[in-house]
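Board work, copied verbatim: Class I adenylate-forming enzyme family protein
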Amino acid sequence: MFLQRIGNKGIRLGTLFDRAASRHPASPVILDHELDVAPERGRRMTMTEVADLVDDLASRLWAAEVRPGERVVVHKTNGFDITLLACSIARIGAVPVLLSPKLDGDTVCELVRRVDRPHLVTDQDKLDHQLPADVFGLTRQVLLASGSHERATRLAELAGSARVAPVTMPPDHPTLVTHTSGTTGTPKLAVHTGRTFQARYRPQGTVASLVGRSEPVAIHVSFVHSRMFTAMPITILQGHPMIILRDDDPDVVAEVFRQAPPGLIEAHPNTFLRWEVLVDDPRAPLANVKYFSSTFDAIHPRTVHLMLRASRRESPQFVQMYGQSEVGPIAGRTYTRKRGADADGRCVGSPFPGMTGIRVVSRDGRRPTKSSPGYIEVRSDGRIVTYLGEHERWEKQADGEWWRMGDLGYRTKWGCLHLLDREVDEIEGIDSTLEIEDTLFARMPELVEVIIVPDDNGTPVPVVCTRDDKPLDLTAWKSAVAGLPAMAEPVQWKLDDLPQTATTKIKRLELARLLKAERTGA
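↓ predict structure ↓
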């Protein structure tokens, strides 16, 4: 799209912190954890210090004989150093491949196999407890961010290596590989270029520009997700103090925000859901927030309403963007206090003029509607260029400039896109499981999760989680489901037992399988 192409020279991850430091050298980066690769740096650094650390790590990788064009898988214990290592790898012209710390060892080995003998950056804990020994035969070498292992090289041993000049790769060269959520099976490896990433920057940069530069921006996003690599550059290049959260525990977050009140928060929908308890926290950790932002799944209106209620700023807004790892943000909408709790949560907004496009393709030859939704297809210059090792799967979703999202929905006469369900999650006889879940959240404040999946007979089964795992009030439940499509009796689970992706999305197909196994004893 033409506005994404103007002046697009590629995102240049390798020199990102250098450029930020040249503009805002003393701008702070505040963490809620120490970095495994540099625990001595503590939890607060200036932009200049972060840029120096990225340069230092790049020199160690170069000393380990990582060279331009080569691939480096990063799969380590969760922390912001995953993101910094990615920038360091890009700095020497290599291609970082980021794998979530939540992935099991067998899945990691399968993805490493697809990458075709990369370097691997991991840690002792992963090698000792999660990764099969086969991983050594699948890689050129194994480098350790922390700990020690007889078959691996510690990055700490390479400290003090001579600094090397940044290597600038062409903007259409792969700059980063992330993976999809894996909600429908083994994750796919999405290949981004410098140019596609820069194209994603345009729609999102406008949100952060609305916040005063002296106000901190807080980010709680998976460190391996593509969203981190647009949220972070936007924040630091505009000069905002940056708060990076690894932990979404409400008590931990409240204390961090008490000391450094953010003006904007970017987080996963399920993270905001968990933070609903902060609304009445006496420390008022959300009082200074002017903008809440989420770019993943559609968010429940109840959560939006509570977040806006917690802010003491004049006219706070909740910005929701609809997108996908493969294409970046596609559509957006805003909520206000006047239009929050009662808003239609299935409306995910309109495309960004001159930057993204949306069409809904009919499945039955008629105009897509709520009762007969169509396939959602989008276009954006932010689209990935392939799935690594699976280009045929990429081609199945691509139709020229258009990209099949795997979602079902329709557009209103005003052009607003309504997202009803994932194609694989559709249940016969129900217009939208997501809409029913929104309704149940609004009617039952004690719910912290509700997922509707089909049983073997196609009957909708609500799986519910309550705050503090209190027993579900069945009387309140019967009242809440009044007027909704017929469903089986609810099944209560603990939230931590639900299968989740790196971005805390629930793996619905996996949940349905687990539910079946629980019921049959298989």
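The longest helix spans residues 47-63.
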